[in-house]
Design goal:
The complex is a heterodimer of chains A (about 110) and B (about 280).
Chain A: H1 2-15, E1 23-31, E2 34-36, E3 39-43, E4 47-54, E5 60-64, E6 69-73, E7 78-83, E8 89-95, E9 102-108
Parallel strand pairs in A: 1-4, 3-9
Antiparallel strand pairs in A: 1-2, 4-7, 5-6, 5-8, 8-9
Chain B: H1 2-25, H2 32-51, H3 53-58, H4 64-96, H5 99-108, H6 113-140, H7 146-171, H8 175-203, H9 226-235, H10 243-278
Helix pairs in contact in B: 1-6, 1-7, 1-8, 2-6, 4-6, 4-8, 4-10, 8-9, 8-10
The chains are: A mainly beta (about 110), B mainly alpha (about 280).
Amino acid sequence: MPLRNLLLAILFSSACLPAYAERLVLQLTLTPTGFSPKQLTVPANKRIQIKLVNKTQQVAELESYDMKFEKIAVPNGDISVFTGPLKAGKYTFFNDYSDHVTGTVIVKKP
Amino acid sequence: MIAVLLIVFREVLEAGLIISIVSAACKGLAIRAQVISGIVIGLIGAIMLAKFTSLVESSLSGYGQEIFTAVILLTATLMLAWQTIWMSVKGREMAEKNRQHVKSLLLDGKGGFAITIVIAIAVLREGSEVVLFLYSLFLSSSLTENSMLIGGLSGVLLGILVTYTLYRGIVMIPLRHIFSSSNIILSVIAAGLSSQAVGILANIGFLPQWGSQIWNSSFLLSSNSWAGVLAHSVIGYTATPMGIQLVTWCAVLLVISFTTYRLKHTYYANKEKQYASHE
């Protein structure tokens, strides 16, 4: 099994490297009328952390397909989702437990 | 009400897709008991998980949900790999025994526990979301909004109905074809689950990304589209994969096929040896 051992070795050795790069923290609030702000603007090629406070009385799930996160927020709870570095463009996030509650992230070249 | 129905329906269908494809791929094995116990265990787990979500979240310094999801995805990967390897060896044995033996082989059911776990995990993952969603609606809605609960429940029923239809549709394909391709199908699902898991771990910084977006195939199949979401839950498709996701996807597929190949090889080698010693 030399192939498997090699792959495992690569995987584990690189897992030990410190991957905690500095993150840009963005604040987001979920209100009964939707996300606030509805649009976030971030520079390209930066690791991002989005902090969400759920100010509604219902459980919400902050999800994005193109930014690859999915996290449950209980009422009055706060969560953080992590993504990036992102290339320039427009990305969308939404509350998975509600219809048509969406927001966008605009990624701009620095 | 319609919105609730659609949200619940989608969650149920996502779990249902995995269940029907895995069951169809294992057609010919007596796995009804495993499938049903998997669903039941998953549902119980989902209800328990829904109660403790905020607890999971606050533990592990805010990474709780990510680590939990990654761990159950990796467990499902291991189980599918085990099932694939087991089937490729056992399936061959079955083909060589007579009908009576096959029956007893199917009944002994060893190795089938992997299926139970895979299905339990699929139900657990989507089920806990449905339970949380319906539960919070139930708490926050007054009597007039009972229609929301009805919407939720009909969403569940509709999801089960579509899943079952889908399963019947897949099983219509003759057994011979399913058996020859089921290894590939199960391996691809396993690869997809593992690449989702490492994607989650790389996003929170526990694994390196090896490139955040190796390519962007949104123009072919967008991650936001209906088909993209289905492809995501079955083969782990994402329009903008990370390097580590691609590597993991290929590695899992390679390891499973390689192990299966080796085992088959050893099996035939042993068989020849047996014949030689009989003469």
